[in-house]
Specification:
Strands 3, 4, 5, 6, 7, 8 and 9 form a seven-stranded mixed beta sheet that branches. It contains 18 helices and nine strands. Among the domains are: 8-151, Acyl-CoA dehydrogenase/oxidase, N-terminal domain (Butyryl-Coa Dehydrogenase, subunit A, domain 1), CATH 1.10.540; 162-280, Butyryl-CoA Dehydrogenase, subunit A, domain 2 (Beta Barrel), CATH 2.40.110; 449-567. The chain is of the alpha+beta class. Helix 1 crosses helix 11 (338-370). 54% of the residues lie in helices and 11% in strands.
Length: 567
């Protein structure tokens, strides 16, 4: 009961029965040879086997032992280095990387399935390779030929791991306050000095080298975010010399104990610039956007892992007779009790809908890159831009709240470590914070991606969803109502006060999340063998909450005051 096991048949159901991924991929010349259902199923099954047999069994010991810091070096928990070496040598990090870079050229959605499984199995372990693909894409699109030759293959294969060094003690969400300096050197490189905090995997013994991607400021750079440039600092140079990069300590955290969250100090470390001076955020956002999709998948995976534990326990734990039971005095398994069914079915509804949305997003990423039709590429980019912040925010929040609800199924047993459910609650909490807090995601969606174009992109997305075959009348009505509300109320009143959109942002994102779930469940309902109990559970609460959120936004717009926060 304590060890998660991937259920690859569920992943395959969403991919092939619901989303028809093989048909979508067949439209892409670069992916057509990988559109074979049997091939994709084989990869997913093998991934599930590796994750279940190699990574999942290390979850509890990794949490209890944790990463250990001593004199600047970090030792990972027993079994972590060996399992990671087996992971990259088997080719798992390179699934979606380009063949010319040593990758396998498989669809992004296959990598998405793998990362959902990995995060469900062992969140702390998966933090290490979690940034690999983003770092690879960053170097591939913005690195010089010399940087590509040195680092691209190593990152694509996963032989070397990477970090994303943004945050400083005084600069979290506001990266314009970054003070780390990069001074030009005569040899064309830079001397980089400063301190970065909350750096996942900043130091460890999993790989033989670590590639640090660091935001810093050139001497003549203007203040604010436009003055930032991106630099690469390796742990070891090509000649084997150790860079002037030091791990000062690792944080003692609520969860993900197996992932070293480091304070990193750069003492005039030799650095190479990535991309153009002053365009560091442009290059870094390639990495951040990839990371945000993966964090959304963390939410789905962690919720699934918590549900697996709670469901297994509920099928075995006998207590009082369930309401409606025909045998007086009989002790029934608690899975028959309505209160427990409500908890379990609700989480299943979130998991199933989240998979549809996340896997669709991964398919759109490949469409955006490879489709020969410019209009299809534009539509894919619109989906990814608007849906990614919703996926990251709503499903990481549900991972924490849902894991806590799953703990409730265990009663007092859930509050002790023996059953393993409390680890999921602790581990899941961080996903609401990193890669842009959930509040930042809501602001990004409304203030940066909806209002600047008068909600034109969002209106188009909502119309496309409503026009898809299989959508129920209620979902179409809700999509149209939300579209009208945005056009008639939100956009015209956006400038009623400088803080007006910010008061709306959280309810706005949640409303869109509920609409996307309704769209997803309509898609699920048209596929064979849909999960009837989770389907019914979803429709019981989605529209009441949607109506409530719309009412809260109406109140905010009319009064100019924020509606109360939801508990």
């Amino acid at each position: 009961m304590n060890v998660y096991q991937p259920r690859t048949s569920e992943h395959a159901f969403v991919l092939f029965d619901v989303l028809r991924a093989h048909e979508r991929l067949a439209e892409l010349p670069a992916m057509s040879e990988h559109a074979d259902t049997a091939l994709l199923l084989q990869v997913i099954d093998e991934a599930g086997r590796f994750v279940g047999e190699v990574v999942a069994p290390l979850n509890r010991s990794g949490d209890e032992i944790g990463a250990q810091w001593k004199a600047g070096a970090v030792t990972m928990p027993p079994g972590f280095r060996e399992s990671y070496q087996a992971f990259w040598q088997a080719g798992w990090p390179s699934l979606a990387c380009a063949v010319e870079d040593g990758g396998q050229g498989l669809p992004t959605v296959v990598e998405a399935v793998l990362h959902e499984q990995l995060n469900a199995a062992n969140h702390g372990w998966t933090m290490a390779p979690g940034l690999l693909h983003g770092a690879y894409e960053c170097i591939r699109h913005h690195g010089s030929d010399a940087l590509k030759a040195r680092y691209l293959n190593k990152l694509a294969s996963g032989e070397w791991l990477a970090t994303m060094c943004l945050t400083e003690p005084h600069a979290g969400s506001d990266l314009g306050l970054v003070q780390t300096k990069a001074v030009p050197l005569a040899n064309g490189r830079f001397a980089l000095s400063g301190t970065k905090i909350f750096i996942s995997g900043g130091e460890h013994d999993l790989s033989d080298n670590i590639v640090h991607l660091v935001l810093a400021r050139l001497p003549d750079a203007p203040p604010g975010p436009k003055g930032l440039s991106l630099f690469l600092v390796p742990k070891f140079e090509a000649d084997g010399q150790r860079s002037a990069v030091h791990c000062e300590r690792i944080e003692e955290k609520m969860g993900i104990h197996a992932s070293p969250t480091c304070v990193m100090r750069f003492d005039e470390a030799a650095a190479s610039i990535v991309g153009e001076p002053g365009k560091g955020l442009n290059a870094m956002f390639v990495m951040m956007n990839a990371a945000r999709l993966l964090v959304g998948l963390q939410g789905i995976g962690l919720l699934d892992a918590a549900w697996q534990k709670a469901n297994a326990y509920a099928q075995e734990r006998r207590q009082m007779r369930a309401p409606g039971s025909s045998k007086a005095g009989r002790a029934d398994v608690i899975a028959l009790h309505p209160a427990i069914q409500r908890i379990l079915q609700t989480q299943r509804a979130w998991i199933a809908a989240g998979r549809v949305i996340a896997y669709r997003t991964a398919l759109e990423l490949d469409t955006q890159k490879h489709h020969p039709d410019a209009a299809k590429r534009e539509a894919a980019a619109r989906w990814c831009s608007l849906v990614t912040p919703v996926l990251k925010s709503a499903w990481t929040e549900q991972a924490f709240c849902g894991a806590s609800a799953c703990l409730q199924v265990f009663g007092g047993h859930g509050y002790v470590r023996e059953w393993g459910i409390e680890q999921h609650v602790r581990d899941a909490r961080v996903a609401m914070i990193y890669e842009g807090t959930n509040e930042i995601q809501a602001i990004d969606l409304l203030v940066r991606k909806t209002l600047p174009d008068g909600a034109a992109a969002l209106q188009t997305l909502l119309a496309e969803l409503a026009a898809e075959p299989g959508q129920s009348q209620r979902t179409r009505q809700a999509l149209q109502a939300f579209s009208a509300f945005v056009q008639e109320q939100v956009v015209p009143h956006a400038d009623a006060g400088p803080d007006q959109p910010f008061w709306l942002a959280d309810d706005f994102l949640r409303s869109l999340a509920l609409l996307l779930m309704a769209w997803a469940w309509d898609r699920l309902a048209t596929a064979p063998d849909v999960e009837a109990t989770a389907h019914a559970a979803f429709w019981r609460w989605v529209w009441p909450e949607f109506d409530m959120r719309m009412g809260m936004m109406n109140t905010t717009l009319k009064t100019g005051q924020p509606a109360p926060a939801m508990l």
